[in-house]
Specification:
By secondary structure, this protein is α/β, with parallel strands linked by helices. The protein is built from 14 helices and seven strands.
């Protein structure tokens, strides 16, 4: 009996039931790694969220599979586009590890199927043209992480230098297609929950008017409302840092002061500032100026401890320049807070002495020999203001000794140069005499 060969039918993915195909799409196109990946092309605060399976080639199998898979992927993942215009995004985020898919402008622009597009735009200024548009593509599920870490107040610092005026960031949120009311709420919830002090928010697209009005109202609310509790929060950070410092936990103290400083600066540059100033009056403004001065002085103190360490070598200059920037902020504390606000705060003699002392010490630790006369002037002024301060007296001795060493070295080098020239001329004269004889 003769056996007949019957060829097997090739496997066809589209022959599978729709439910199984959807399971495959979900596994390959909607499964994302929980571990984030550091990408050198990203700014420091962002990390890459990757698909668990790199099989997007499935989308190119044929037209029907492409349509099915794309539709499933877009509906389940709900991609969000985030655009920044007119400012340096490196100052926009409070923490690290914010998950995004890509920041490649071309790739973000090419993708068309977003659930929502959010845009932050700085009001027109000369500085706004220095920065190109920055784009982010991310998952809707990761939007809360981004919204929670937005520091819009710091980005607006340069436009809110006067204590009696305030400019706000422009914000726009656009839903790109119709969603059921529950999905609209889910998309807008992170914005309503975490964003504050944004009175210029617009919500566009097919969105429920009542929901949009509620979100706009929430986002416009001030982040800081009570002058007393705001000062208490910042003051607690200062006190905790001082206790940590006394326990020799210098880096922990620095972290506490940095958090308090950022809170203070954010409050000052937010739309909350004007209402806080009105409610708290001159006393509130004077206390914030004093806290700002104190925190910058404490930061300079920490950096100088770091500059004295055995391992500090290559970092002395860097830390020195950062410390100097904090000392310059001390000098501007009154202008930033009290001027134009009807307040009277100026640093006390003791505070001014500490600032001058830190400045002189910084120049000495940096070995800035060209500025040693300035260091002497600074430390002598500090000693005049605080004649009984032991640390200032010791630093004065150190600065004068440093200057004396430089002068002695200079005299030795000058003597060696004179001796070298004398020896050279003696040799030349001997040669001439020999030739003449």
């Amino acid at each position: 009996m003769m056996a007949f060969y019957q060829p097997t039918q090739p496997f066809r993915f589209l022959d599978l039931p729709g439910e199984i195909r959807n399971n495959v799409y979900h596994l390959l196109l909607c499964s994302w790694d929980t571990e984030l990946e550091e990408d050198p092309s990203f700014i420091r605060q962002l990390s890459r969220r990757r698909l668990s399976y790199q099989t997007v080639a499935l989308l190119r199998a044929n037209k029907q599979i492409h349509c099915e898979a794309s539709d499933y992927m877009i509906k389940r993942n709900q991609f969000v586009r985030f655009t920044c215009r007119g400012f340096d995004v490196r100052h926009l985020f409070l923490g690290d590890g914010i998950p995004v898919i890509t920041t490649n402008t071309r790739k973000v622009s090419q993708h068309q199927e977003y659930a929502m597009h959010m845009t932050l735009s700085k009001p027109i200024s000369s500085a706004a043209f220095q920065y190109s548009v920055f784009e982010i593509m991310m998952l809707r599920a990761d939007l809360p992480y981004l919204c929670e870490r937005l520091d819009i107040e710091s980005v607006m610092a340069d436009m809110n230098s006067r204590a009696d005026q305030h400019a706000s960031m422009n914000a726009e949120v656009k839903l790109t297609r119709f969603f059921a009311p529950k999905n609209q709420e889910r998309l807008l919830k992170p914005i309503a929950t975490f964003l504050r002090d944004l009175p210029n928010l617009r919500i566009l697209g097919p969105v429920d008017p009542t929901l949009a009005a509620t979100v706009i109202e929430e986002v416009a609310k001030p982040r800081w409302t009570e002058p007393g509790s705001t000062l208490e929060e910042i003051g607690t950070g200062v006190d905790v840092g001082k206790r940590q410092w006394q326990q020799n936990s210098y880096y922990a103290a620095s972290d506490s002061w940095a958090y308090a400083m950022r809170t203070l600066e954010r409050m000052r540059h937010s739309s909350s500032w004007l209402s806080l100033k009105e409610r708290g009056g001159e006393d509130f403004v004077n206390k914030t100026a004093d806290l700002y001065f104190t925190l910058n002085l404490l930061h300079a103190q920490f950096l100088q401890i770091d500059m004295c360490g055995d391992y500090a070598g290559p970092h002395v200059q860097r830390n020195g320049f950062i410390a100097m920037s904090h000392l310059r902020k001390c000098e501007t504390a009154s202008a930033l807070f009290a001027h134009h606000a009807g307040a009277t705060w100026t640093p006390s003699n003791e505070q001014t002495a500490k600032m001058l002392y830190r400045h002189a010490r910084c120049l000495r630790l940096m070995r800035a020999s060209a500025q040693r006369i300035m260091a002497i002037t600074l430390i002598e002024d500090a000693a005049t203001l605080a004649p009984n301060d032991i640390a200032i007296t010791e630093e004065k001795d150190a600065v004068l000794s440093w200057n004396a060493d430089i002068e002695e070295t200079r005299r030795l080098l000058e003597g060696m140069e004179v001796e070298r020239k004398s020896s050279l001329w003696s040799s030349v004269w001997t040669a001439i005499t020999t030739l003449a004889g």
